[in-house]
Structures are given as C-alpha cells and as structure tokens.
Amino acid sequence: SYVQDIMGDVFALGFGPFRWVCTSCDPADLELTDKIALDVQRDLLATASVPSQGQIRDNMLWIEQAGANKMVVGSQARILYADCTGRQTIAKHFNDAVRDGRLKGPVVLSRDHHDVSGTDSPFRETSDMYDGSALTADMSIQNVIGDSFRGASWVAIHNGGGVGWGEVSNGGFGLVLDGTDDAERKSNQMLFWDVLNGVNRRGWAGNQNGYDTIVGAMKTRPDLQVTLPNKADDTLLNGL
C-alpha cells in the first residue's frame, strides 16, 4: 500500500485533505478563501517542524494555482492538505471573513475520508499500523462521536470508501462557519480532536512522526494530556 510507503508518514504529521464549501456559490468567495488559506500557510511555514515544511510548501504551490487549474465542478469547494494548526487557523480566518462581510455567506468545513483519523481501513489508510490495531474499527467511531459533541454541525459513519463494502469504516463531519463566536469555538475544539486523535493512534502504532507531533501538541496545549507509548527494545523481544 502507498500508505505504508508514503502517506502514513504524512498522515502522522496531521496533514490530510481538509475541505471547505462556500455556500454563497460565488466564485469570488472561493477565490478569497484560497487567498486566506495561502496567507495562513505562509505564516505557519516560519515555525513549522522540518518534516512539515515540505508539506506546507507543497500546499502553498497547490492553493496558489488552484483557481487557474479550474478544478471546481458544481459547488464552490476546495481541498487543501493541512495539519491540525493549519485547519484551526484557516477556519478562524474564514469565520472572521464571514463575520465582517468579506465572504457573502457561511463556509462549511469538512474533509475527505482518506485522512489522518476518520478511517479504519487495513488495506489502505491504516495499513501502516503494525501493532495489530489495523484490523479494528475503533478510530473512525471514536472520531465521529468525538466530533459530534465538540461542535460538528452533523456527523456520519459509513462503509465502503474506495476499497469495498466490509473493508473499511469511515467517519465524517460537516461544520458550518457562520461568523459567530460560537462557530469559532466549535471549530477550534472540534478540529483539534478530529486530527490529533488519529495522530496519537499512529504514534502508538510506532510511527515516529505521530509520536513527535503529539508530543509537540502537548507542549503548545498544556491542557492536552496524552498517555505516550513505551517503546519496546527489539533485542529484548527477539531474545524471548
């Protein structure tokens, strides 16, 4: 699986397909959200970890050229690979723009199921979890239930998602940014959970990026307390 070779390390940093839809259906609103997201990425690049910097540079290139590539079919929507801080910061700026009238209507946040934490798929999204947990479907359920009481406007749990019925469990959400203080509070706390519960599980499964990212999150948010794994000594285990 390409998740084992490439995407697992990206997901473990917290980067995944963050999605938003401009409910005004106005292309000018989508253009403004592109600019806001680009400005956020530029700001985050200065303080990002070395592994994250490459992802952010790719994101900047993508969002800078997204409009010219005319990717929109139907809804005025966009996908951008972003980490936890990126999603929270972009959401805040979108909500501010709705509040002050720069955006003509609310923005709905979501994400793809092919993401950090919303999917249990032992043949794809969770195929790089070698601790035995790849065959469980707990993360998608915990993710969607956690989102529901942290502020999501709606949630969904479903099956299928590209690899076939019975092979994957997916949790998804929608969150409406309507310019209110309540929307800002909900997006901040919900996105924090939505991303980092998966980062933490990936760290527990042995991914160093996941471990480092959740440790970094605890340093920036003292109220976040996560039990960290104790790494086993391979030489000791092999001698048993």
- The shape is globular
Total count of helical runs of at least 4 residues:
8
Order of helical and strand elements = HEHHEHEEHEEHHH
Rg over CA atoms, rounded to whole Å, is 18 Å
Estimated structural class: alpha+beta
Largest sheet composition: 6 strands, antiparallel
Give start-end ranges of low-pLDDT stretches.
Answer: none
Average pLDDT confidence is 92
The end-to-end distance, rounded to whole angstroms, is 31 Å
Strand content: 5-15%
Q: Helix fraction?
A: 40-55%
| Strand runs, count | 6
Characterise this structure.
There is one protein chain. Strands 1, 2, 3, 4, 5 and 6 form a six-stranded antiparallel beta sheet that branches. The chain contains eight helices and six strands, in the order H-E-H-H-E-H-E-E-H-E-E-H-H-H. By secondary structure, it is of the alpha+beta class. 48% of the residues lie in helices and 15% in strands.
Give me the secondary-structure topology.
Blueprint: H1 2-12, E1 16-22, H2 27-45, H3 50-65, E2 77-82, H4 84-99, E3 107-111, E4 119-120, H5 138-148, E5 154-159, E6 169-177, H6 181-204, H7 208-220, H8 234-238
Antiparallel strand pairs: 1-2, 1-3, 3-6, 4-6, 5-6
Helix pairs in contact: 1-7, 2-3, 2-4, 4-6, 5-6, 6-7
Short characterization:
The protein is an alpha+beta fold.
Which features would summarize this protein structure in a list?
240 residues, alpha+beta, six-stranded antiparallel β-sheet, 6 strands, 15% strand, globular
